[in-house]
Every structure is written in structure tokens, then in C-alpha cells.
Amino acid sequence: MKPWKSESDNILPGISEERFMQAAREYARSAYPNPDRTGCPRRNDLEAVARRKRPPSDDEVHHIPTCSPCFTEYEAIRKAWKRKRAFVVAGAIAATLAVGAVSGTLLFRRGAAVAIPPETRSVEISKNLPRKHLIDLRPYERFRGEGKTERSLRPASLILERANLDLTIQLPTGSEEGRYVFELIDSSGAHRIEFSGDAVIRDFITTAEVPFDLRQVSPGPFTLTVRRMELAVPAQYPVGVR
């Protein structure tokens, strides 16, 4: 097949290949809703195809472009994988430069003894200081085609302390970058806390950082809802506050 190289090679007059492909991607993201995820491949199969670990099967070739949720996940995984390949080279260069800089510093300071007092762990000065806390939502994501055995292996509820937290939230694999809304809902359905934050791909994981002040929240079971700002239906995760 002859590659598109110039404006004269456009598939339609006045429309470049880039604009055509962008329009096709936008159409595929929304034209084929599949809320029940009927016939969707498992996430590890999407990852294997997107990361070129294996070629797609005939069913995947026909399904992914005609299922908006699968196409969106595939595209996000593919984007993260491409970044990873670029970061490997950059990381290797940075590591080499860092080793050289440290070696130079040690040679420069050779013979000079530097006294470094040991770190001591002090009592917390104020309970108002936020605590950093990481939660990983990837083990809690919904797996298509799962049976009773897979459901029984799902992890227990997330546990959060009643404190002023700075949460780092790792979103499920395939989550897109963008603005997300996070809500904590109690067992009666009342909305107790709501915060929003921007999620970015960091170390190949879509990650958001949001403040979560739980000091005024009573202990007990809760539900953490997560949704992109543009979407109406959130994902839900069990949370225990203690």
C-alpha cells in the first residue's frame, strides 16, 4: 500500500491523513457503546495486543474497533507503552549522567570528613499535617468474563485512616489522563467527601493526587467512587475507614 506523503495523496480532497485518522479515532471512542461489555476480551489480552506481545486474534480484530470501551482501553494502553519505550532510552542516559556526577563529587571531596548526624524520628508536631498515603485501584478493577473463582480472589476493602491525608491514587490499567472526581459515600448513601484532581501517566501508571481529610468522618464501611469529569457513571470501590 502506498503511504500518504503529501497533500495530493490525501484520502479526501483537503483532508490530511492525520485529520482523517483523528476523526476515525474520535468516532470509534463513542460510536459503539457496550455498557455490558458483551464479548469483550480480558484486560490482559488487550494489553498483550496493544504492547505487541502477540498478534490479535480474528475475533479481537473485529471486536476492538467496534466496541468503544475496548477501543478506549486499547488506545490508552498503547499510548503508555509507546511512552515507556521512549523513557527507557532517556532513563539510561539520565542514570549514566547521575553516576558520573556522584563519582565526580566523591573525588572532589575525598579526604574531607563530613559529619552527618543520624536522623531521629520526632513526635508529630501537629495532627493537622497531612499524611501521604498510596492506594492502588488496579487490583479492584472489573474483569470481563470472570467467574466465581475470580470473584473470590478479589482483594479486601481498601483501608484509610481517620486523618488528614494526601492521597496518591493509582487508577486501573488503561485509564486515560484527565480530570477525575473522587467521592466518599457512607453506607446510607450520603455523600461525605468530594475532591477532584488531574490524573497523569507516571511510570506507566495513570496516577492522581488529591487531598482527603477524614478527621471528621466516623469509622465504618464506605464506597469510593471514581469518574472522569466528562463521564456520568463512576466506578465504585469498597473502603473501610478506621
What does this 3D model show about the protein?
It is a single chain. This protein is of the alpha+beta class. It has two domains: 10-116, no CATH class; 131-145 and 153-241, Immunoglobulin-like, CATH 2.60.40. Helices cover 31% and strands 26% of the residues. It is built from five helices and eight strands, in the order H-H-H-H-E-H-E-E-E-E-E-E-E. It has helices at residues 17-30, 43-50, 58-63, 68-108, 148-152; strands at residues 131-136, 158-160, 164-170, 178-186, 191-202, 205-213, 220-228, 235-241. Strands 1-3-6-5-4-7-8-2 form an eight-stranded mixed beta sheet, with no helix packed on it. A hairpin with a 2-residue loop joins strand 5 (191-202) and strand 6. Helix 2 (43-50) crosses helix 4 (68-108). The longest helix has 41 residues, at 68-108. Residues 1-8 and 111-116 have low confidence and may be disordered.
Keywords:
31% helix; 242 residues; single chain; 8-stranded mixed beta sheet; alpha+beta; Immunoglobulin-like
Indicate the radius of gyration in whole angstroms. 24 Å
Number of structural domains: 2
Describe the largest sheet. Answer: 8 strands, mixed
Q: Given the helix and strand composition, which structural class is it? A: alpha+beta
DSSP helix count? Answer: 5
Apparent shape: globular
Mean pLDDT: 77
Give the strand content: 25-35%
Roughly how much helix do the residues carry, as a percent range? Answer: 25-40%
- What are the low-pLDDT stretches, counting only 5+ consecutive residues below 50? 1-8, 111-116
**Quantity of strands, as a count:** 8
The largest sheet has its strands arranged as 1-3-6-5-4-7-8-2
- Tell me the span between the first and last alpha carbons: 62 Å
Give the H and E element order.
HHHHEHEEEEEEE
